[in-house]
Amino acid sequence: MKELLDVDTVVRATIAGHSIMSIASRHECSMEQVREALDEFSRKTPSPSNRSMVLALECSRLEMLEARFFKKAIEEGDSTAGTLVVKFRSDGQPYWASISRRRSEWTSRR
Questions:
Q1: Which of 10-19, 46-55, 58-67, 78-87 is least confident?
Q2: Could you tell me the pLDDT band of residue 93, with boundaries at 50, 70 and 90?
Q3: What pLDDT, in 10s, does the model give residues 17-46?
Q4: CA distance 103 to 110
Q5: Alpha carbon 109 to its chain's center
Q6: Are 51 and 103 in contact, with CB atoms under 8 Å apart?
Q7: Can you spell out the DSSP letters for 21-90?
Q8: Model pTM above 0.85
Q9: Is 31:64 a contact under the CB 8 Å cutoff?
Q10: How far is the C-alpha of 28 from the C-alpha of 1, rounded, in Å?
Q11: CB 59 within 8 A of CB 96
C-alpha cells in the first residue's frame, strides 16, 4: 500500500469518470482512503469565502470553450460544435449569466 495518496490524482481520476473502486485498485489503497482524499478536496473547494472567485474562473474557462466551438461551428460548419454552443447557452444566454443567477441564489441563502 502506498503511504500517501495524492488528492489531486484522485480528483483528476474521479473527474475523468473512474470509480472509487478502480482508483483504489490502481493506487493500491483502500476505497476509504480514496473517499478521504475526495473529502479533503471538497473541504477546500469552494468555500463560502472563495465561491464567487471559483465560479468566475469556471465561467471564464467555459466561455473560452464556447468561443472555440462557436468558431469551429461557423468556419467549418461543424454541427456537433454548434450543438455544444447551444448547450453552453441555455435559454439563449451566455453560461455565466445562468451561473450568476445561481450564485445570487446561493449567497441569498446564507
A1: 46-55
A2: low
A3: 899 999 999 999 999 999 999 988 888 777
A4: 11
A5: 22
A6: yes
A7: HHHHHHTTS-HHHHHHHHHHHHHHTT-TTTHHHHHHHHHHHHHHHHHHHHHHHHHH--HHHHHHHHHHSG
A8: no
A9: no
A10: 5
A11: yes
